[in-house]
Design goal:
Chain lengths: 82, 148
């Protein structure tokens, strides 16, 4: 089981903060994104943004990064702290 | 030390903690980021700031580790506030001490440039026209790129 988190405007757009999903072995972040859109077609326009950042286990990764069972994956817009 | 908290901080106290009992520290740089009244032409009334608990601390520690590999830092502290803010409120504190000013200046600037582009914080501005999520800016990415 993978736990998936969304932050900031993405969380508001999807109206979802957190969910759990089963993924086939060796799926990438891109694969997870496709799976999410399959379940929630209206999420496509928000998850397709090429500006989105992804983290796996709280470290920024590229979309090609492979996800392991038990990982915590987060999708979020570019950061604006400071 | 990394502190994420809703409460304000006292720059004077933080300075004292950075230097207390350390006569090797010939230089201390402190930076404070505050809520500005005008951002990209928008009249700002206040803002809300959220973060990704856990990843925030991890990414800030990685930024400090990188700074320590580049410059000789004696003591350091990062405080980032979260929650609701009014105009003029403090948002972030970065303090660095070192033997010489070059290390302290560079390390503090590096930490801020990377914090702004790599640490998972997001600002939502409250304006007269409603609330707006702040967009990341190219100038911040350029500032961080300088250190590559």
């Amino acid at each position: 089981m993978i736990s998936v988190l969304f932050f900031a405007q993405l969380r508001e757009q999807l109206q979802c903060e957190k969910l759990s999903v089963e993924l086939p072995a060796d799926s990438s972040v891109t694969g997870l994104r496709e799976k999410l859109v399959e379940h929630h077609p209206t999420w496509l326009e928000f998850l397709a943004s090429d500006k989105l950042l992804f983290s796996v286990n709280q470290t920024l990764v590229k979309a090609s990064h492979t996800i392991q069972d038990g990982d915590e994956v987060a999708f979020f817009p570019p950061v604006t702290g400071g | 030390m990394i502190v994420i908290q809703p409460n304000d901080f006292d720059v004077g106290e933080e300075y004292q903690t950075l230097v207390a009992g350390d006569t090797a520290a010939g230089a201390v740089v402190t930076f404070v980021g505050r809520v500005r009244d005008l951002n990209l032409g928008r009249d700002v009334l206040g803002l809300h700031l959220e973060h990704y608990p856990g990843m925030t601390e991890k990414s800030l520690q990685a930024i400090v580790d990188e700074a320590q590999s580049r410059w000789k830092i004696l003591r350091w502290k990062i405080i980032h506030r979260i929650g609701d803010f009014h105009l003029g409120d403090n948002i972030v504190f970065v303090g660095v001490s070192s033997a010489h000013r070059e290390d302290a200046f560079h390390a503090a600037e590096f930490i801020m440039d990377y914090l702004k582009t790599h640490a998972p914080f997001w600002k939502k501005e409250l304006t007269k026209a409603g609330s707006v999520w702040v967009e990341s800016q190219a100038k911040d990415m350029r500032a961080a790129k300088r250190w590559e």
